[in-house]
Every structure is written in C-alpha cells, then in structure tokens.
Amino acid sequence: xxxxxxxxxxxxxxxxxxxxxxxxxxxxxxxxxxxxxxxxxxxxxxxxxxxxxxxxxxxxxxxxxxxxxxxxxxxxxxxxxxxxxxxxxxxxxxxxxxxxxxx
Length: 103
Hints:
103 residues; alpha+beta; two-stranded antiparallel ribbon
C-alpha cells in the first residue's frame, strides 16, 4: 500500500471516534443506519482519513454526496458537513485535510 493510500484510508480508531462524535447517526438525515466512512474531501482528491475529514452518513446520503445527480442536494449535504465539522474543530478551515507528497 502506498503512503498516499495509507494516509487517505480511515483507520478503525478514526471510525470509532467519528461514530461517537456523530452520535451513531447520519449527520444529514439522522438515520441510525449509517457508517463513519464518508470523506468530506474525497480520497480521489487526496482527502486524508482523519477525524476532521470524516463524517457519519447513511448509504443514501453518502451516495448523493459522492455520486448524486441532484446538484442542489449534493451542495446541501456538503454545507451540512462543513457546518458540522466546523462546529467540532476550532479553526477547522485552517486544517490540512489533503495528503501532501512527502508526508
């Protein structure tokens, strides 16, 4: 596994912390049938597998965020994720959420 792949992967420890932080529910729709495995900045765009970049989403919301054709819904989910993460981490926008070569 490459350094980039390892950096972007979500560890079990991060999943556990995110699951607790998000109170075991999808942060968008509130469904309890959710998992803490959604990247705010996607893996395809070098998004790190760190708590500050991961949220709990249900399968439907995760699909709509990553691959949905409804741009308004995708933007609504994105804004909800941004607000959620910003409320949990001071100076969230200043955190480095992308893999940088050489790390």
